[in-house]
From TrEMBL:
Keywords: Signal. It comes from the Bacteria. This is Glucose/Sorbosone dehydrogenase domain-containing protein. Residues 1-33 form the signal peptide. Residues 55-346 form the Glucose/Sorbosone dehydrogenase domain. It comes from Streptomyces longispororuber.
């Protein structure tokens, strides 16, 4: 899988992108304060709704034909959605159980070898805990159900939930601490961790602790994606001080519960690459395009964009759509280079009032993005 996106010909005018984004309520910096973007910089532009009437659309991924698939957290429904807005119910994930909070049917990934195996992967809450499972998708119907990983405690809150295949062919998952802070530093527990398994659910021989654990010391890790160098970036909900974006290392310790962002007893732990006050964050989803990290926030109700510089720092932060579309859950980049973005109006107690949005992305300069866009 490659993580630099290819995009068809588009206008290269940054002024056009800025005017379009401003008309949509994007919070853009003053022109005299913004450096000229590098060629290939992704600039969010026009926004349209692909579908409405969704109920907390949580996981989002793409099939080889370019259509999207998304999960609904509380209903356990799985839908296919085309770029023209045609929506098809594919079925339900059995044994998925909503928690009345943050649990239910969450993460979704498409097998890297979907053309031959037809597998979709899910992370969901069940009666006994959280699970990773897979099902087959054939002729627009889900069938079969195989549990790949159990043993993750559940709670009404802090269930993590994201899935992402890496360039190594392994499946990575974010798992929250289930509101038991002691689990995050316990290497034998699967909670408060980034997990890594083989596509069949077995444990890779090169995992650092002999189990599914890849990194420790996480509170409620969510958004996951890889950059062009194959490095894993992760978004994380803090407690009441700071939210984070982390660069995840094998066997790394990210400090929770002793350290929240840069607050607390943080010596000896890996520091985050970016923090925000929790009022501006709750970073649920993360995607990387042309080595720019996009983060969608629920409480912050905005989409962030940051560039990964040569020192692996996140710089040139921009903010889009502040308050325009409410709580934002999941951004994903399709094979055309556009961003699909789900809303998450789960705090208003009205079911079925969420949307999947299509954000047209304009790439600046004369150089188009390079590389191969792997549908996912």
């Amino acid at each position: 899988m490659s993580f630099t996106r290819r995009h068809p010909s588009r206008t290269s005018s940054v002024l056009v992108a800025a005017a379009t984004a401003l008309a949509l309520g994007a919070a853009l910096p003053a022109a005299d304060a913004a450096p000229a973007p590098e060629p290939g910089t992704p600039e969010p532009g026009k926004v349209t709704a692909l579908t409405s009437g969704a109920d907390v659309p949580w996981g989002l991924a793409f099939l080889p034909d370019g259509s999207g698939v998304y999960t609904e957290r509380n209903t356990a429904n799985v839908y296919r959605l085309t770029k023209s807005g045609q929506r098809t119910l594919l079925g339900k994930v059995p044994q998925s159980q909503a928690t009345g909070g943050e649990g239910g049917l969450m993460g979704l990934e498409v097998s890297p070898t979907f053309a031959t195996d037809h597998y979709l992967y899910f992370l969901h809450t069940s009666t006994e805990g959280n699970r990773i499972a897979r099902m087959k998708l054939e002729n627009d119907r889900l069938s079969g159900y195989t549990v790949l990983l159990r043993g993750m405690a559940k709670n009404r809150y802090h269930n993590g939930g994201r899935l992402r295949f890496g360039p190594d062919g392994k499946l990575y998952a974010g798992m929250g601490d289930a509101q038991n802070t002691s689990l995050a530093q316990d290497r034998t527990s699967l909670n408060g961790k980034i997990l890594r398994i083989n596509p069949d659910g077995s444990i890779p021989a090169d995992n650092p602790f002999g189990n599914a654990v890849w990194s420790i010391g996480h509170r409620n890790p969510q958004g996951l994606d890889f950059d062009s160098q194959g490095r894993l970036w992760q978004a994380e909900f803090g407690n009441n001080v700071m939210d984070e974006v982390n660069l995840v290392h094998k066997g790394g310790n990210y400090g929770w519960p002793n350290c929240e962002g840069t607050n607390g007893s943080c010596a000896g732990y890996i520091a985050p690459k970016k923090t925000w006050p929790v009022s501006a964050g709750s970073p649920s989803g993360l995607t990387v395009v042309n080595d720019h990290v996009f983060v969608a926030t629920t409480r912050g109700q905005r989409l962030y964009r940051m560039r990964i510089d040569a020192g692996s720092n996140l710089v040139d932060e921009r903010t889009y759509f502040s308050g325009t579309y409410g709580r934002l859950r999941t951004p994903e980049v399709d094979r055309d280079g556009d961003i699909w973005l789900t809303t998450s109006a789960d705090r208003d107690t009205t079911p079925g009032n969420d949307r999947v949005l299509l954000v047209d992305v304009v790439y600046s300069g004369t150089a188009r993005p390079t590389g191969t866009a792997a549908p996912r």
